[in-house]
Task: inverse folding
């Protein structure tokens, strides 16, 4: 049913219809960065329930492990966890390096902000490839929670909700191929380029000032606020009669709900880290 509805969207609402790649290309791809984009879009359409099934398995798995580990000693896992976080950190850095140039090329062009969120131009092979890897990585990142419960670390609502919802939304709405997705992707790669290396170093018991942890929390909150703002702005543009902005009402509503909830939850985390944390420190002193 979902695919049937997707096929009834306007021509420019889905896939790369109306979005031509730069010719000649401004950003040259490596040979392994050239993919069959339409095939992946069709595959995502055919398997739109996949992240929902993955989410169900994910929830059952992490809470089952948490229950099982209740009376068991925590696993150490520092060595494998170091390589896990280091690998995701390197992946994020590479994604940021390969994706950011095309994003900035659009953003700093004439009327760049509008083009970056509404106009289907500036497409290129490297950005397309790393967009695909970004979406696929959301499945991989679900394993973050498994490491957490095996080590008997606190499993807060924000953690598993964020992982599950991001995976579902990224896969199900990827076929819209909307220009505004540039913002989500570049911000996520940027934050993860700092966050995962930080986690990797922590597993090696490297002393890292608390300010770094607070800075990462701040970056996460900024990411959610900006994601919410660009969505609200595109909604405003369309309500004001801008029929050229390449957004679909379903996507706008979903992302406003998602980024709105993320902003609230990360805002709470930010408050606890900066204000409640400072109060506890003063009490100890």
Result:
């Amino acid at each position: 049913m979902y695919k049937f509805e997707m096929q009834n969207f306007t021509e420019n609402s889905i896939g790369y219809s109306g979005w031509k790649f730069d010719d000649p290309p401004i950003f040259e791809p490596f040979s392994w960065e050239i993919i069959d984009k339409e095939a992946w879009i069709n595959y995502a359409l055919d398997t739109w329930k996949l992240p929902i099934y993955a989410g169900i398995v994910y929830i059952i798995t992490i809470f089952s492990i948490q229950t099982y580990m209740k009376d068991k000693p925590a696993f150490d896992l520092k060595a494998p966890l170091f390589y896990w976080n280091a690998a995701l950190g390197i992946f994020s850095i590479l994604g940021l390096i390969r994706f950011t140039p095309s994003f900035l090329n659009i953003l700093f062009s004439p009327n760049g902000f509008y083009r970056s969120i509404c106009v289907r131009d500036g497409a290129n092979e490297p950005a397309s490839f790393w967009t695909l890897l970004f979406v696929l990585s959301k499945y991989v990142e679900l394993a973050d929670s498994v490491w957490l419960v095996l080590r008997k670390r606190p499993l807060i609502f924000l953690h598993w909700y964020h992982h599950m919802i991001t995976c579902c939304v990224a896969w199900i709405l990827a076929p819209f191929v909307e220009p505004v997705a540039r913002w989500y992707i570049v911000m996520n790669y940027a934050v993860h380029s700092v966050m995962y290396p930080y986690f990797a170093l922590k597993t090696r018991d490297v002393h890292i000032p608390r300010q770094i942890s607070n800075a990462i929390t701040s970056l996460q909150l900024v990411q959610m606020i900006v994601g919410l703002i660009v969505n609200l702005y595109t909604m405003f543009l369309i309500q004001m009669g801008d029929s050229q902005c390449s957004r679909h009402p379903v996507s706008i509503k979903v992302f406003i709900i998602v980024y709105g909830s993320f902003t609230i939850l990360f805002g709470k985390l930010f408050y606890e880290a900066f204000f409640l944390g400072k109060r506890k420190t003063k009490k100890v002193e």
Residues 1-12, 279-285 have pLDDT under 50 and may be disordered. The chain is about 70% helix and 0% strand. Residues 49-284 form one domain.
